[in-house]
Amino acid sequence: MSFFLTYAADSEEYLLKPAGYGLLIILLAALLFVIYKLGKVSLKTQKMQTKQLVTCSAAMALAVVTSYIKVASLPFGGSITLFSMMFICLIGYIYGAKTGLITGMAYGILQFLIEPYIFAPLQVLLDYPMAFAGLGLAGLFSSKKHGLITGYLFGIFSRYICHVLSGYIFFAAYAPEGMNPFLYTLGYNATYIVPEAIATVVILSLPPVAKAIAQVKKQAISS
């Protein structure tokens, strides 16, 4: 582990070494390759494989950019952003849960590369690849009526559960004295996820937006 990480005693957290960054870049590249190969299975042609990879990469890039446009930030992590979760959920909606899951996992690794916070290995898994992979589960509802909004809500709920588990297991000590740590982490994570979810659902409910997304989906899966 020391080959990839170093412990910072002053901040009581682990920091990535160059080898750690290198490993994450390799994992990210591997996940992008998996996305490309998934296109071969579901979309048949090399042109469609490439289109799927480009679409997923563009969604990840948009998610990163909008994650830095913050309405509010919380002191121990988490922020209300400009609809950043929506872009990963859209990949699930367009290509299905499997591609959405892998894209979300890749995005989680990318976020970890940009802003790593390492308290424990399981905490990293819960707060980064697993949490953002959960957004891709929006694809479970891609063929359902109102699947866009239902899938989005399910995706962000999946992310919420991962952060709640991480908070309860690893950060219970930050709960105010006398307050139940589980209730604290439920409330803390809802503070930033719920407002963004409400704002995003309002936007997705607008007929012009829904129509535009339907057109994007049609173009993304057409040859």
From TrEMBL:
Entry keywords, A to Z: Membrane, Transmembrane, Transmembrane helix
Gene3D superfamilies: 1.10.1760.20
InterPro entries: Thia_Transptr_ThiT
Coiled coil: none
MF annotations from Gene Ontology: thiamine transmembrane transporter activity
NCBIfam families, alphabetized: ECF_ThiT_YuaJ
Taxonomic lineage from the root: Bacteria, Bacillati, Bacillota, Clostridia, Lachnospirales
GO cellular component, one term: plasma membrane
Membrane-traversing stretches: 20-39, 75-94, 125-142, 149-172, 192-214
UniProt organism field: Hungatella hathewayi
Protein name (database record): Energy-coupled thiamine transporter ThiT
